[in-house]
Amino acid sequence: MRIETFQMERMQCLYEQEGAYNLSESGVDPMRVEELVGGREASRRLLEQSLGYGHSTGSWTLREHIAAFYPGAGPENVTVVNGGSEANFLTLWSLLDGGKGERLACMLPNYMQAWGLGRHFGAGSDAFRLSPNGSGGERRWALDVGELNRAVTKETKVILVTNPNNPTGAVLTEEEMDAVVRAARRARAWLVADEIYRGAEVGGGPTSPSFWGRYDKLVVTAGLSKAFGLPGLRIGWMLAPPKAIAEFWRHHDYTTLSPGTLSERLATVAMEPSRRERILARTRRILRTNLPVLEEWIGERSDVFDYIAPVAGAIAYMGYRLPIRSTALVDRLRVEQSVLLCPGDQFGMGKYLRVGFGSDVEFTMKGMERVDTVLRLLAT
Question: Which of 8, 45, 147, 377 has its Cα between 20 and 30 A from that of 348?
């Protein structure tokens, strides 16, 4: 089967550098090299780095640092790749590359990479959803456990969840995590937990719980792009049992071979436990500062938007009541106002918009003023 076009990534590749206001990103303002390494002397030493090949699975020290982010993990459970996207790609290629009829059960809404890969490497992708639940200030995106259990069948080889979720910013409760594990155990399926937003909690509270250690056939994927504000390093990783790590390595030999040498060195700095916590504190400060400003704007337009606050991630996901599809609305905003948002169509939902609020808040709100121009025209 020919792999389908990844619509969201194609849109961002075409337009994210072209418009005046790119609000389609889901991370925070990227860190500078000097800010990360801690001064001019450390920056100078970085310039002495030889640019040969690095460790194909990531250095032992980097893998130790990554494992320390997951209680009970060791460096033998970690392999390092080029970004969270490669982590997901290699994982699903490895796990679905074998038997005919093997299917992926995939959480929606979601970053649709896994959905497309399940349709390409496997026999197809089956949806289970997060749905708006509750009322007033108690509203949240809740897992539809009944739909999960219907989606996971004897043909299911892999269940994929994104937690914290993209695009909703939701975090599964302990009970919901237990339900996912029960479904995986019943089908003897692999569970893949994309946790790339873990550490970017909006309220500044404790780090979201990981799926690591809850199930034997488990892969956790993550990286430095979102919660850490280091997307340019293109560092991602997988945590899994050692036998699965060896299988991922076998597939990695056919793709990018190894992480970049400079990226690996900087990632080792970033994931040192005390430095890691300082970086995540920076991320949470940005989110705490920026979100209330955007939420005030959303609240003033409650006749148009249906909004549930994110628990984690620099993303606000808003349903809207306007007579236009989300892809058409985003195209209009881009062409008429030079503002780029992400449409709900590209996450497996209809009339929703995803707004990134992790950049400079004044920049974000100037872009939202332009959004307002189109909303007023559509509402008349």
Answer: 377
Where does residue 240 fall: left (phi above 0), alpha (psi -120 to 50 degrees), or beta otherwise? beta
CATH number, domain of 119, equals 3.40.640.10
Q: Are 108 and 348 in contact (CB under 8 A)?
A: yes
The SS3 of residue 363 is helix
Cβ neighbour number for residue 252 with a 10 Å cutoff: 24
CA 240 to chain centre: 18
The total domain count for the chain is 2
Q: Are 221 and 79 in contact (CB under 8 A)?
A: no
Q: Does the reported pTM lie above 0.85?
A: yes
Which secondary-structure segment (H or E) carries 33? Answer: helix 33-37
Token pair recorded at residue 181: 């594990």
| 45 part of a folded domain | no
Backbone angles phi, psi at 260, to 5 degrees: -65, 145
Per-residue pLDDT tens digits for 26-58: 999 999 998 999 877 888 888 889 999 989 999
pLDDT digit string, tens, across residues 104-145: 999 999 999 999 999 999 999 999 999 998 666 689 999 999
User: Would you call the peptide bond into 164 cis, given omega within 30 degrees of 0 as the criterion?
Assistant: yes
Which domain range does residue 14 map to? 7-32+276-373
CATH code for position 24: 3.90.1150.10
Which is nearest to 200 in space by CA: 232, 166, 176?
166
Question: Does residue 38 form part of some domain?
Answer: no
Quote the Cα angle for 343-347-352, to 5°. Answer: 40
d(CA 78, CA 28): 25
CA distance 169 to 201: 9
